[in-house]
Write a structure and sequence with these properties.
Blueprint lengths: L4 H12 L9 E9 L4 E5 L12 H11 L5 E10 L14 H8 L2 E10 L5 E5 H4 L11
Parallel strand pairs: 3-4
Antiparallel strand pairs: 1-2, 1-3, 4-5
The chain binds tetrahydrodeoxyuridine (THU).
The site of tetrahydrodeoxyuridine has 13 residues, from strand 1 and helix 2.
């Protein structure tokens, strides 16, 4: 599948605006491209009981899954402290829980694009971020 990574990053940036992060003040947006060619977005949503927070990646994933999607081709992630200047963006990698959550629905070569400062985009794959992973096929 031809993946427009710039478009996916744009969608993640747009989604980031919906972040609810009054505790960390760290805003994350994510955009998932599914096998069907649709894009689902999400942002991090925090909670006064901090551990109940959900990351941007899982917000996007849950939206996609609920709409019937089961296979993810790519995800773009854009995260930075509340500011939006180009230089404020950090390479915001998916946390461990999100890596495992995405693994369940990842196509074998699922791409991961991460926005950095100065319009840089880091490219990797979910299997690089989560090698030797456990998935549904292991349950037999
Ligand atoms: N966060 C994400 O949204 N995705 C990640 O993969 C890492 C962390 C959020 C959770 C919390 O709202 C804030 O970033 C600081 O940890």
């Amino acid at each position: 599948m031809q993946i427009d990574k710039e478009l996916l990053i744009e969608k993640a940036l747009e989604a980031r605006k919906m972040s609810y992060s009054p505790y960390s003040h760290f805003q994350v947006g994510a955009a998932i491209l599914t096998e069907s060619g649709k894009i689902y977005t999400g942002a991090n949503i925090e909670n006064a009981s901090y551990g109940a927070t959900i990351c941007a990646e899982r917000t996007a994933a849950v939206k996609a899954i609920f709409e019937g999607e089961r296979l993810f081709a790519a995800i773009a992630i854009a995260g930075s402290p509340e500011r939006t200047a180009e230089e404020d963006f950090v390479y915001s990698y998916p946390c461990g829980i999100c890596r495992q959550f995405l693994r369940e629905f990842a196509l074998p070569d699922m791409a991961v694009y991460i926005k950095g400062p100065e319009n840089e985009i880091k490219e990797t794959t979910l299997s690089e971020l989560l090698p030797d992973s456990f998935g549904p096929e292991h349950l037999g």
